[in-house]
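Human: Respectfully, please carefully check these tokens:
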Amino acid sequence: MYIELPEKLYYSMGEVTKAFQVNASLVRFWEKEFEVLHPKKNSRGNRIFSKVDIDNLKTIYHLVKEKGFTIDGAREYMKSHKKELNTFEIISKLEYVKAELQKIKAQL
């Protein structure tokens, strides 16, 4: 799964929900269920997500939406299979490179 987000330090809830094509309520639910998600809140109380939060959201999305894990199963998998999650990160980076190459090809 390739998520297209601009290079920034922090992302708003709207940017995150648009990139992942999910509702804000689902992101807030995942925030409560997974200890690894810790978005900061700005002065207005709006959530802002860092790169680490986005990477964790990618992992959660992959496990829950693509692999079909339950919330409890995904939580346990993330705790016990850290090496396999590194493989997922490598695959995500390769998908990014593939998408960029396809953009270049389309421009030619």
